[in-house]
Specification:
With about 70 residues, this protein is mainly alpha-helical. The radius of gyration is 18 Å and the shape is rod-shaped.
Length: about 70
């Protein structure tokens, strides 16, 4: 693995933690250096860091606030 790939992994905590949890992914990363893009996507899905997940959390928070307001009224 190149130093560039190591820097990417170490500097990105989501990828680093994902690889610690799913160590079998290293074999795909060793075979194909472009797999880092897929790995980044998988890590974001697992740790729910995607923009879709952030919007979902915001939606849930707004629904919770609306529920409290309805109860108060």
């Amino acid at each position: 693995m190149s130093n560039y790939m190591k820097e990417i992994i170490i500097n990105n905590p989501t990828i680093y933690n994902y690889l610690r949890d799913q160590s079998y992914q290293y074999k795909y990363l060793y075979r194909n250096k472009n797999y880092i893009k897929k790995l980044k996507q998988l890590a974001k899905e697992k740790y729910k860091v995607r923009s879709i997940d952030k919007i979902e959390r915001l939606k849930n928070s707004i629904e919770l606030i609306n529920t409290f307001i309805d109860v108060i009224e």
